[in-house]
Amino acid sequence: MRRIQGSITIFLSLILLSILALICVCLESARAAGLQASAQMCAVSSLQSVLAGYDRILWEQYGLFFFSDSDREGTRLVQIAKDYAEKNGNAEASGLDWFRLANPAVEAEHLTFATDSHGDIFRQAVSDYMKTAGAAESAEMLFEKLGLTDSAGELTETGEKWEASSKEEELDVKNLLQEYDDLKEEQAEAEAQPPAEEQVRETAGMSREQAEPVVQSVMNTIRSIGRFGLLGFVAEDAASLSNDVLSREELPSSLTASEREGDGNGRRDPGVLDYPLFYEYVVRNLDCYTSEQRKGCQVEYVITGKNTERKCVSSVAARLFAIRYLMDQTMALTEPKLQKEAETLAAAALGWTGIVPMVEGLKMILLLAMAMGESALDVRTLFSGGRIPLKKDASSWRMSLLHLADTLGDLSEKSEEDEDGLSYEDYMRILLLLNNQEEIVYRTMDVIQQEICRTEPDFRFASCIYSGEIRLTAEAQSIFPLIPAISEYSFTGTAGGGYQPVVK
Prior knowledge:
- It is built from 18 helices and four strands.
- By secondary structure, the protein is of the alpha+beta class.
- Residues 185-212, 245-269 are annotated as: Disordered.
- It comes from Hominifimenecus microfluidus.
- It holds the Pfam family DUF5702.
């Protein structure tokens, strides 16, 4: 009996040990599931904590969310995420020893930077911000002023036409002056052979002696614009513009095509208003020539990409002149009043020759010269903070052949403002529309990076993270020594996110 009772005790001990082991296995299995969930939550909370550390200066000054890293490997992101993971995963600190994770390791994956996808990452960050800033209405108002609200095709067609005329940075006066010089040679030949009395034309009361000085004055004024540049005619403080050369080293616009590509993650196709909203952002947030407290002509740099402030403003002035000349030329060639003025002066100056083509040639030269003078006056008005309508009528035309030289010679003389006209900033929006979109985006980053580097010398857009993923791996020890087979194991958690708005 004693042997039988002893065997029962041993048997029960073995059964209890097996039951205890089974209970431990079940508990450890449940704990493992909890540890996996803990690792996942730890990864998510760590990434969210990192993204909450966005660059404060970039947000406060420009309204943009980016995490400023030290390089494109995400070194700073990984280190900060690891620090958060150690705090979040160490459950011992809160007394929950069951879910303690140890030795967390973090890897960054699929990072997207501000300069990636040829600037599309930065562009969509700006567009997302502008959609919350009520800027869409401003873009639509500009389109309405331009008469481009009906169709996108019309915008494209008009833009191509303007671009064809405005992409040149030098004034188109050489051809006009060459035509005038050729005409003077023909006049000299005609003077060698005086015409018969019946060939002399009526000149509406203006004699040849009166007309020739006026014509010469007009052409000398146009010649001086071509010789000395437009900037001196339109900007009162042109001499104050800096000639300091901008160093593009480490600026986003200096990146190569492969560096601009990135890995292509996080890109979103632009919407209809994305680029107009971006241009609106540029005008609203960067300084230009007419800004009250001008730090530098930043918008002009974004448009032109020139390496000095003076070159940027001079190039913008030339492009504004090209746009205005396109519109004013059309007006000069179709308005009867202007046609009559040029015809009268041409007839008075060359009517004595009796050579009709010569008179008509001078008439055309004078009309184009008058359009150039009107355009120069328009640009001067814009630079002084005034407004000029895109399309003029007879009532808004200011320039006269008789007073062209005097008007342009007086820098205080400006066109009368049109309340419904476009301001200098509005014309900057037009120039932005006509530019290379990718270059506009990268030059905008150039300007912002330079400004932020005044307080954060190490700031670089090329290492500013917009979105990405982290992979967290942590270890855990079994709390049941009865299960040596699973005494140690690891858990992995992944999390992805960024500053993109949630699409519902």
